[in-house]
What we know:
By secondary structure, this protein is α+β, with helices and mostly antiparallel strands. It has two domains: 2-178, no CATH class; 182-423, no CATH class. 36% of the residues lie in helices and 27% in strands. It is built from ten helices and 18 strands. It has helices spanning 20-42, 47-57, 62-81, 137-148, 217-235, 242-268, 284-287, 292-299, 303-316, 360-375; strands spanning 2-17, 98-100, 106-110, 117-124, 127-134, 152-162, 165-178, 187-193, 197-204, 207-215, 274-279, 321-324, 344-345, 348-350, 357-359, 390-393, 414-415, 422-423. The strands form four sheets. Strands 2-6-7-1-5-4-3 form a seven-stranded antiparallel β-sheet. The chain is globular and about 70 Å long.
Amino acid sequence: MQKSVTRTLVCQLNIGEGSPRLLTEGQVEARRVVNEVFRLDDEGYDWKQIEEIAVDRSNHVQNTTQRLVDKAIDALERYYDEDDYGHPGQNHEHAFPVRMNHGEGYALTVDDETGSVNFRITAQKRTFVRGTLQSGPEQIEMLQTALTDEKWRVGTAEVVSRHGRHELHINVTHETATVRSEEDAVTFVGVDVNEDNVSLAAVTEAGVEDSIVIEYPEIKQERHEFFTIRKRMQSVGQTAFETTIENREQRFVHDRLHQVSRRVVEWSEQFDDPVFVFEDLKDIRDDIDYGTRMNRRLHSLPFAQLQTFVSYKAAWNGIPVVKIDPEYTSQECLSCGHTDRANRQKKRFKCVACAFQDHADRKAAVSISAKGLQKLNRNVPALNNLPVVRVRRQRNGACEPPDHDPVSSVRGYQADGDSGSVSS
């Protein structure tokens, strides 16, 4: 199966001509453009007028300004789609990424003698910075291929400041990447995305091969801290830094989700011809109704974002993706089929009908895998005898604890034999 697949490559800028100061000034101008978009929207201008005004006043080339306006309007569209909560505010403290099209705002070339990739960036009108990109061998090789192979395309890029240095984040697209057909899948990897972890279960027609819970509690913790900071700022009328806090939160979550999604794909590659099975989340917002505060917290969880990151990383490795109806995946018993909300109590699943027990999130991942098998008309094996669930904490990338049964690292639970059942 052929499909278009995009990946973002991160390269540091080794500047040979020009100055880092020029890039910083370009980022400050980008910030001014985005702030102006938010201000004009707040004043009631329509978006077509906003783009015309921003382009006319900008010190960036026209195409770069249009990319910046597009990104700002995307943020406004998300705001209007989410019940008018959290209008994007102006940021006067930090530089903004300069978003550019290849061949216009920036250009890349491959040095025929050394194989290095050279860049030219238009920091602002008639202001240029030139040099060589630095990154890992895999990313440089992929970038060289994208610049020389007609099946590839180099797209938009952003100049970003991190740790006191400038980076170029480049989108490259393989126009005809080969992804295996889902019909040829042997191992169905169910993916259950939660607020503090992602649970995976690899299931074949012969049974459950393995399972793992990759925890990322720091995302929930950091999001709660950022939320508290914003509320305190709002209560005392300090709104100047609100966008800065929001941007820091988004960058933190974005980076962590990239790390988690990479681990998910790496784990799946140990199995024969895997296919990822996701819950279809298109109606999840309509189904959540737990009160205003909890709704806002759950609606903003990056469920779909993590699915997207895993999907495109999987596509780069030829792994297909299918989606299933999420109904009752967390409530249905694998042993007797009884479905009841009372079966699940936080991280513990215990069937009220037959007393079958398991780690609740792993159980949900197994159920998702089973639904994937059903969707492709495969035989679903007996699922009441599961291997021990392993828990991996995202922060240090190590299973905890390393010396004995990993299930015991799940808060409040201890493994009970090889079946993977749990007891408090």
